[in-house]
Amino acid sequence: MTxxxxxxxxxxFPKAVETAHDLASRTNIPEAVLREKMGIxxxxxxxxxxxxxxxxxxxxRKALSQAGVPPEKINLVISHGSEHKDHLVWNAAxxxxxxxxxxxxxxxxxxxxxxxxxxxxxxxxxxxxxDPNLEYVLLAAGSRENDLINFQNERSRFMFNFGAGAGAMLxxxxxxxxxxxxxxxxxxxxxxxxxxxxxxxIGDGAPVxxxxxxxxxxxxxEYMAQRLGESSLGNFGRVIREAVERGGAxxxxxxxxxxxHMKRSFYLQILESIGLTPEQSVYLEDYGHVQSxxxxxxxxxxxxxxxxxxxxxxxxxxxxxxxTWSAAAVRWG
Length: 333
Description:
alpha/beta, Peroxisomal Thiolase, Chain A, domain 1, 4-stranded mixed β-sheet
């Protein structure tokens, strides 16, 4: 049977960082709360030149270099990063394709917010299994949605962990390593308008961001908190379990979880609920939440820290406002 595996990964992060100490004065939240409860030791902040596609292109080049694959061999580029990108109403994937010299590829975007990485992996895998002409597919994502946060807006507090950066995965058809086995996703559409851009969230004297006028805001915080409190843990468990089972395994076989950055207590609760420990995961407290970049970053860090070993079953999971939960199971090595 035809297989699809990950043959190269790469990330890019701006050099500029903002620490919990820096954020404390901007948010009026004590540094200890930012560090211990919200899990933010630092986050990267992009310059004007570090656009979404510039960062995604740098990550993509690293993934290609790691795989030893020239850009001319790529058949498809899929961008699954932020919609807050270089331009409005614009195909960022085409810019990445051009930047890296993937002259024989076509390019398009998919968008599932912070649930995007597992869904992009699923989309690419399905296309590659169906089309023998797709030998190499590049997934690339960049985000700088921290630009869209007013740190004086208490309603957007759960988004204060946003940071900038990019990640990429190169997938190969008929691969023999790092095989994508199964996936799952679930959406609760009752939360579809829970987080949107509003002018009310801009704040006094805040500049317009590029072509956008607005900041990310929560429309009904009470309902969102109640609904997520009732369902988020169960929905994470559901998509993780389904991804593993659809890949022919069980939760007991999982050895590593790479998951979206979130407050520390909920992260630990998710690990416990699926029978894992913090030693079997990576907490992104030195990066914050970088939208759908988080998953490839956890793989990179997990490998560097010796937490992912050949033969391990790993799961990459995320959740994005809208509200969608997603997961993909990979047999590493």
